């Protein structure tokens, strides 16, 4: 006799989403409107950034749901607008970034001195009389 092959049924993820929403409804979560972004700070200094997420919360159940497209970004990528969100845990990462910027911005020793000399070559030395230099 020939064996029958069992056809595997592929479950849609829509059913999982429905079950999740049913459980969240049972917990009594409410949608929080007006949240533009959510940032979750990791221990390694990176940030999980959600732009325009859907946020739901149930304070009684201590449950918060953030749904949307999340991107892992470095702290320096989000820096100007994220400073007010930083806590004491992130000060070490901020200090590391500041030290890196100050080390890179000072010219880095001999390389910076060479760049300054090249810039000085383009500008002629002007003594007390500007007309003599322009006539040359």
Polypeptide structure, described:
The chain starts with 12 loop residues before the first helix and ends with a helix. It has 5 helices and 6 strands; from the N terminus they run αββββββαααα. With 136 residues, it is of the alpha+beta class. It is elongated. It has helices at residues 13-27, 79-82, 91-105, 110-122, 130-135; strands spanning 30-32, 37-41, 46-51, 54-58, 63-67, 70-74.
Class from helix and strand fractions = alpha+beta
Percentage of β-strand residues = 15-25%
Overall pLDDT metric: 75
> What is the element string, with H for helices and E for strands?
HEEEEEEHHHH
Low-confidence stretches: 107-115
Spatial order of the strands forming the largest sheet? 1-4-5
Radius of gyration: 29 Å
Broad shape: elongated
Tally of helical runs? 5
Proportion in helices: 25-40%
- Gap from first CA to last CA: 107 Å
| Strand element count | 6
The biggest sheet amounts to: 3 strands, antiparallel
Notable features of this structure?
39% helix, alpha+beta, 6 strands, 5 helices, single chain, three-stranded antiparallel beta sheet, elongated, 136 residues
